[in-house]
């Protein structure tokens, strides 16, 4: 099997300012090297509806980022909280998307994670352990959906083991197998994947495993059959699911995501669509803005877990109380136009698993002040809170000189606890992330082959069906 190494430069490890005495590091972002010209934005039928986990489960990648941001950890391990306050936290964190995966002809719901790379399913016989202390606990506590049994098309890979620790303390051990997998209507024969036999896992009662959409270098296959002998960094990389599809020329090397908005504003409500090899057949703007991808990997100094994220450089942020404002997108200094804030902003992570936008402190503060009445930072909640009936300012993210305006519906989020928070929060000096608040307003294409991300605006669909955003209807 061919292993595609997209990253040509070695990662330099540089510590960055840690908050709240917690240490993590961002490995110097690596510019991905384009291996081919951009693939066309053709409509593809290879789409999968994305559902949301109907529980308090949070996206792994988002949980990781958020845990690092907020410094929540247990015994040195960053954790995603999953009880009581988790519902509220999930607004700040994100919630997992689920999609169907067929293995050996049987269909399972799996978590879609853009921050990791392995595909795995839980075996029909497995041991559930408590992630915090490794005590064996009842299987039901791992809360998996239906389990997988080796099918006639599966084969165990001898002398290999699967060993992954997610940064929140969850961990999985098992075998490496090859199996015929169908994802988005595309079948890959003999795809390498993990078969989980020991799980320390906070399941959602629905999903039976996970598909990781990040790059191959993060796969977690190790030599031998003794997990205790596995050495971090000595993993044997293999082509993950999407990479295999691309490597075998089964589709163009792109995937795209369109997230839906729903009226309830619940963090766990609407899903969306993931398309492989093209874009889904949905209305979107005439213009595409593209940005080169760099890969940002982050790891906790206390452990080996490492996440990789797709990151881009953006021109800056458009903020105004005046809905007729015109922005100086090229930053020419034109005094008739409103300058962008924090221009440019580097290493902005595009992550569908994160609910909100985490913007640089000055941007978050300017936006908060532009609500009427202004949003204020609540130290008890750790987020900017705002009157649920506040007047929303004009807000957009500028990429490749195009402003992608955010629908007002995405800027005030009802927590369900009797108060509202803003859709754009302070990154506290940490990673800047454009999550669902942004992604609901665009069609996002990850062109892995050309190492770029492209965006096109989607209709600004208000709850009552009106398509409008002040005078800013320059979408089509
Ligand atoms: C929920 O999590 C918090 C924080 O980790 C913990 O203090 C509390 O005891 C937990 N509550 C329950 C009911 O498990
Ligand atoms: C998959 O593995 C089976 C059994 O080893 C083999 O017969 C088949 O040719 C393989 N298919 C591909 C596409 O490699
Ligand atoms: C492999 O699994 C064991 C047992 O869960 C764990 O203690 C160890 O940290 C893992 N090693 C790696 C490199 O993930
Ligand atoms: C994949 O398709 C491209 C373009 O059609 C072609 O140049 C290339 O040789 C193909 N690669 C394989 C492995 O079939
Ligand atoms: C993006 O990458 C391409 C190809 O490597 C390069 O030609 C282009 O200048 C880059 N664009 C920016 C804005 O860095
Ligand atoms: C914005 O433009 C509309 C229509 O041109 C006009 O009626 C309105 O007064 C303007 N608002 C401001 C704040 O300039
Ligand atoms: C907004 O809601 C508050 C109560 O939360 C109320 O006092 C105020 O009048 C409302 N403002 C408007 C403009 O509806
Ligand atoms: C829909 O909502 C918008 C904003 O709340 C309002 O301006 C518009 O008049 C409404 N349209 C209809 C048809 O009710």
Please describe what this structure looks like.
With 476 residues, the protein is mainly beta. Among the domains are: 114-256, Acid Proteases (Cathepsin D, subunit A, domain 1), CATH 2.40.70; 281-469, Acid Proteases (Cathepsin D, subunit A, domain 1). The protein contains five helices and 34 strands. The strands form six sheets. Strands 1-2-18-19-23-32-24-31 form an eight-stranded mixed β-sheet. A six-stranded mixed barrel has the order 6-7-13-8-12-11. The chain has a four-stranded antiparallel β-sheet with strand order 25-26-30-29, with no helix packed on it. A hairpin with a 4-residue loop joins strand 25 (376-378) and strand 26. It is globular and about 70 Å long. The model is unreliable at 1-22, 72-89, 263-268 and 461-476 (pLDDT under 50). The protein binds 2-acetamido-2-deoxy-beta-D-glucopyranose (NAG) (8 copies). The site of one 2-acetamido-2-deoxy-beta-D-glucopyranose (NAG) has 2 residues, from loops. Residues 1-18 form the signal peptide. InterPro entries: Aspartic_peptidase_A1 (IPR001461), Aspartic_peptidase_AS (IPR001969), Pepsin-like_dom (IPR034164), PEPTIDASE_A1 (IPR033121), Peptidase_aspartic_dom_sf (IPR021109). This is Peptidase A1 domain-containing protein. It comes from Aureobasidium pullulans (Black yeast).
Summarize the entry for a quick read.
The protein is built from 5 helices and 34 strands. The chain has 476 residues and is mostly beta strands.
Derived structural class: mainly beta
Give the rounded overall mean pLDDT: 80
| Terminal-residue CA separation | 43 Å
- Total number of helices: 5
Task: Tally the beta strands.
Answer: 34
> Which CATH architecture of the domain at 281-469?
Beta Barrel
CATH superfamily of the domain at 281-469: Acid Proteases
Tertiary shape: globular
Largest sheet: 8 strands, mixed
The radius of gyration is 22 Å
For this structure, the CATH topology of the domain at 281-469 is Cathepsin D, subunit A, domain 1
Helix content: under 10%
């Amino acid at each position: 099997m061919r292993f595609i190494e997209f990253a040509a430069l070695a990662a330099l490890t540089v510590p960055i300012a840690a908050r709240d005495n917690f240490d993590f590091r961002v490995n110097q972002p690596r510019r991905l090297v384009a291996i081919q010209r951009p693939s066309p934005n053709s409509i593809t039928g290879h789409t999968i509806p994305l559902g949301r986990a109907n529980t308090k489960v949070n996206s792994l990648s988002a949980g990781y980022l958020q845990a690092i941001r907020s410094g929540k950890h247990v015994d040195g391990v960053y954790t995603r909280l999953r009880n009581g306050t988790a519902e509220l936290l999930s607004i700040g964190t994100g919630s997992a998307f689920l999609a169907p995966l067929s293995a050996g002809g049987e269909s399972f719901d799996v978590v879609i994670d853009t921050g990791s790379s392995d595909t795995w399913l839980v075996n029909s016989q497995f041991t559930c352990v408590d992630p915090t202390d490794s005590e064996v606990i009842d299987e039901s506590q791992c809360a998996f959906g239906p389990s997988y049994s080796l099918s006639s098309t599966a084969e165990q890979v001898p002398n290999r083991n699967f060993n992954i620790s997610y940064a929140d303390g969850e961990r999985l051990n098992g075998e490496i197998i090859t199996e015929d997998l169908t994802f988005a209507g595309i079948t890959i024969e003999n795809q390498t994947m993990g078969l989980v036999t020991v799980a320390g896992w906070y399941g959602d009662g629905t999903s039976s495993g996970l598909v990781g959409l990040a790059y191959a270098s993060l796969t977690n296959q190790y030599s031998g059959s003794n997990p205790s002998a596995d050495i971090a960094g000595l993993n044997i990389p293999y082509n993950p699911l999407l990479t295999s599809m691309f490597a075998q020329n089964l589709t163009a090397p792109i995937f795209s995501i369109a997230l839906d908005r729903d009226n309830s504003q619940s963090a766990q409500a609407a899903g969306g669509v993931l398309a492989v090899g093209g874009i889904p057949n949905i209305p979107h703007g005439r213009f595409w803005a593209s940005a080169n991808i760099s890969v940002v990997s982050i790891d906790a100094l206390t452990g080996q877990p490492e996440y990789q994220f797709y990151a881009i450089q953006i021109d800056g942020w458009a903020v105004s109380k005046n809905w007729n404002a015109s922005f100086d997108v090229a930053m020419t200094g034109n005094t008739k136009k409103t300058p962008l804030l924090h221009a440019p902003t580097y290493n902005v992570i595009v992550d569908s698993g994160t609910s909100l936008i985490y913007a640089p402190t000055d941007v978050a503060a300017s936006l908060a002040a532009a609500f009427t009445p202004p949003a204020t930072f609540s130290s008890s909640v750790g987020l900017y809170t705002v009157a649920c009936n506040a007047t929303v300012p004009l807000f957009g993210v500028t990429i490749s000189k195009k402003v992608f305006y955010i629908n007002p519906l995405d800027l005030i989020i009802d927590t369900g606890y009797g108060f509202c928070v803003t859709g754009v929060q302070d990154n506290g000096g940490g990673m800047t992330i454009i999550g669902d608040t942004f992604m609901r307003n665009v069609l996002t294409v990850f062109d892995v082959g050309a190492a770029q991300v492209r965006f096109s605006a989607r209709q600004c669909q208000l709850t009552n069906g009106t398509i409008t955003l002040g005078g800013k209807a320059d979408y089509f």
